[in-house]
Write a structure and sequence with these properties.
It is a single chain. With 368 residues, the chain is of the alpha/beta class. The protein contains 14 helices and 10 strands. Strands 1, 2, 3, 4, 5, 6, 7, 8, 9 and 10 form a 10-stranded mixed beta sheet that branches. Strand 1, helix 2 and strand 2 form a beta-alpha-beta unit. Helix 2 runs antiparallel to helix 13, helix 4 packs across helix 14 and helix 7 crosses helix 9. The protein is globular and about 55 Å long. The N terminus is likely disordered.
Amino acid sequence: MIVSNISRLLASLITTITCFVLTSTVAVAVEESITVASWGGAYEKVSKEAYFDSFEEATGIKVNIAAFNGGLAQIRVQVDSGHVRWDVIDIESQDGIIGCDEGLLELLDGIELPDGPDGSSAEEDFLKGAITDCTVSHITWSTVIAFNTESFKSNPPNSTKDFFDLEKYPGKRGIRRTPEVNLEIALMADNVPIEDIYDTLSTDEGIERAFAKLDSVKDSLIIWETGAHPPQLLADEEVVMTTVFNGRVFDAQILENQPFEIIWDGQVRDFSRWAIVANTPNLENAMKFVQHTALSSSQAAFANRMSYGPARRSAWSLVQDHIPTGIDMRPHMPTHPNNSKNVLISDAEWWADHKDELTERFSTWLSN
């Protein structure tokens, strides 16, 4: 009887220890992975090569990738439900401000960002506006207009105005399903100076003016949502011109030999930013990821694969040749002097204040 009781006690103890070990192992496995929401396609591939793989190698923390097309809807559902599945998101500037104000994103005021290779502090080295309460930028990018050269073999378009000139340049146009950029380029094409765009949009008359200009091409529009879609529209000759993220055009030109050209006139420049979803159970590892991508070497690794510029100055000297093909990357950057003669810097604060009302107005306009 005594032996039997001891056996049962030992068996119970072994079971308890086994369960503890298994539970601990599962906990460690969860802690040693993060989920990063990215934009898919070529952009996601480059992000993996420049950021995710090197982070895994440096830390041993696995990066799982989730598909993301922007906005805050999916993040809001996760935070409000208490079931946060994403840890880090690659977010647009105005959404970073709105998400921070709504408590959907973690405050990053305590994060220690790495110094530049020259010893400069992150605060000195990052471009103006690149760091906010809840975000840290990793690239600069632009929405540009691109066209298929097969559609215009002589006298090709070269300005924002040409995008709206259906008589001179007939054919379908592509625009993104958001009011951002579309309202700005409409006013540019309607002769509003770059420096007056947001002051004009701050008036009822300015909003009406922008939508009136969009009305002039409405029947010729095809709407896109994902970054990979505009180059495909051009390649399939569904459109002759489209707004598009500049890096997507570069990839199509260089890697796929597509006959596309960029119109740099009127480019709308912005940052892509890392933000951490509020209440993530993996906050410490998410912070480590943001710190890793803030390294000048990490940002240059991205810029040497896709034509988006680094968000910190010290990384620029590290931007040289395209890793897959060896061509010089610098002339293809939106920040290169030759491409920066008529640039609008997107006003994220303005859009954070006006996004909801103008998104509703834009959606109604599209559906009518």
